[in-house]
TrEMBL record:
Keywords: Iron, Metal-binding, Oxidoreductase. The keyword Oxidoreductase applies. Belongs to the iron/ascorbate-dependent oxidoreductase family. The keyword Glycoprotein does not apply. InterPro entries: DIOX_N (IPR026992), IPNS-like_FE2OG_OXY (IPR044861), IPNS-like_sf (IPR027443), Iron_ascorbate_oxido_reductase (IPR050231), Oxoglu/Fe-dep_dioxygenase_dom (IPR005123). This is Fe2OG dioxygenase domain-containing protein. Gene3D superfamilies: B-lactam Antibiotic, Isopenicillin N Synthase, Chain. PROSITE patterns: FE2OG_OXY (PS51471). Pfam families: 2OG-FeII_Oxy, DIOX_N. It comes from the Eukaryota. Residues 282-390 form the Fe2OG dioxygenase domain. GO terms for molecular function: metal ion binding; oxidoreductase activity.
Amino acid sequence: MSSDIEAIMKEKINSSQKFSLHIDESTDISGHAQLLAYIRYIDGDVIATNFFIRDSRNLEGQVAVFIWPTNRVVRLYPPAKGSLFVASYDSQGYGGGSQPRIRTGAQGIESESKLRYDRHITLGTFCCPSGTVDVPCKSTVRRVAAQLHRALSEKGLALLVNHGIPEDKIRAVYNAFDKFCDLPEDARNTYRRISPCNHGYVSPGTERFSREHIEEMRHTFNICWLDRKLPEAEVQGFQSVVTSLAQDFQKLATLLLRVLASSLDLQAEYFLHSHSNMFEEGNESCMRLLYYPPLGAPPTPGVTRCGEHADYGTFTLLAQDCEGGLEVQASNHRWSRVGHLPGSILINTGELLASWTNATYPALRHRVVVPEQPKIRSKGRHSIAFFVHPDNNTPITPIQCLMTKAEQPSPNSCSVKNRKSHHAKHNTIYTAYQHLQMRFRETYAS
Ligand SMILES: O=C(O)CCC(=O)C(=O)O
Ligand SMILES: [Fe+2]
């Protein structure tokens, strides 16, 4: 286990009233012995379960993979150069089967029935952007695509593990942004976002997702350019850590666009063609750094961290620290908390993907709430969102094969009736850029 993940696990276990540890061994479908470890602890108001699995033949050389036991158990083997390999343990009866019996040490938790289990996320396994794999083999793409299809169509999100973006790169960006947020207000405002350009710093309370009159307390820095208007003079090394992470995210996004096409039975390049200019002129994809400052007790009415919204583009990749607060809305409108799975990156659907796919992948509504517990509230939260947007001039019309016959537009028509999306009122989508600008006007209107 990497040292930072080990540190997080220790911290979580130490602050948990009770915890349990269950070690077991079994064999995988190829007959190799596997060491299994379940760690359960109380994290806020949920019982969190982390599942670690390792090939017990060679513990030194293996990469630990984290799996939630309520999900299908799938393992991505340590990525050999140039190849991706996913092994499924379904046939062993772990995935989707009965809950592992892990009562040891947890018997004393009387209130267990009142606690919710974090079971709402379907695991997506993933591949390695920092390695050499640009074009994974077709069978792997298909397998991951099937998982992603299920996760995005049912929940609008998935957790990606073994994605290949090193935790220390993420941490370096958190640190650089901390230093930026510590600068005097005047210095920060030198880099402020000036509409209609999306690049730049946005101070707490300026940007509002929520339609209600609620102040949203966060510092954000939207990074749309990697070569200008970055606070390198004030925070040494800012540009290099940000650029390196953005490039990894971009590589991951490119792989996912391929997987996404496969998940909808489209040609592999289908989405790549319309996302060919990320971080260049003509595309609004952006990496957003977020820092939510600590909030004292008692909670101030009318203040939140991030109001309810769906992201505007194709999809978002989100890295978050272990402070929590992110919640997602299910199709029954109920909000549930996203547990923290150390080292994972969350992918969630955006509005343009929902329009494109005729709501096969509905846009996920989400928010970041102020933690109830004073101890957690008094800590800051860091996250990094990588928003993947289509090239500006892309017309967003539902993919015909995902429409019913009755919905299919007449030939030559470029406006689109959109059954379930937020555009139902206006009925028309023109280009990705127009959609985005409309959303920015709403978000930044004071
Ligand atoms: O900070 C987070 O976890 C979420 C941020 C977010 O949803 C956004 O900026 O669109
Ligand atoms: Fe968001």
